[in-house]
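Collaborator request, handled under Task 6.
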Amino acid sequence: MRYLLILSLFLFYSPVAMSDDTNTQTNTSGSNTNITGGYESTSETTYADGSTNTTTTNNDTTATTNNKSTVPPPSANSPSYSSMSQDVCSMGISGSVSTGIFGVSGGKHVVDENCERIKLAKVLQDFGMKIASVAILCQDPRVFQAMESAGTPCPFDGKIGEEAKSLWTRYVELRPDYEEHAAREKIRAEIDARIKEEEKKARHEARTKGLLHK
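Structure tokens returned to the collaborator:
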């Protein structure tokens, strides 16, 4: 029993090597994150018989993270436009543009004049105003040309038929298709001049052949 007590006191007061623990960590935030850590532990034990046991552990850790956001920017949506009624001659136009920096969208209503013209002509026809109904349709160059080609010229200041045709010829600049009419008249003049020249040449050749036969 006495020996056991002496051994316990000896072990209690025996020198134990001091351990040195070091832990270092560096964290840098940003687009790149770099974490480095070093851990070193040393343990030394001396027993009663004089033997020594030393344990050393080294642990090095390095972590690098590159994190970049790939979330797309918000998109620009075109606004929705509605005529709100089937009897309104208008239509909605909208559009949008979206880039990596900003987005923009917009829209508006556009009046359909051709639709308005047809509706107005129909109302005038229902009221018995046939000439007025035709006159408002004649504001369209296509209708004007069709009426002229059919031999029924569009009304002019209350005149119809041949009187209207004569006035349209006099005030040709007032035609709704004036530019196109001028281009057609130029082509007609060129063709007529070419035909006239060919006929003149043919008559000259005929006279020359007649003289040779004589």
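The cover message to the collaborator said: "The beta strands are 22-28, 32-46, 52-66, 90-98, 103-111. The mean pLDDT is 75. Please let us know whether this matches your experimental observations."
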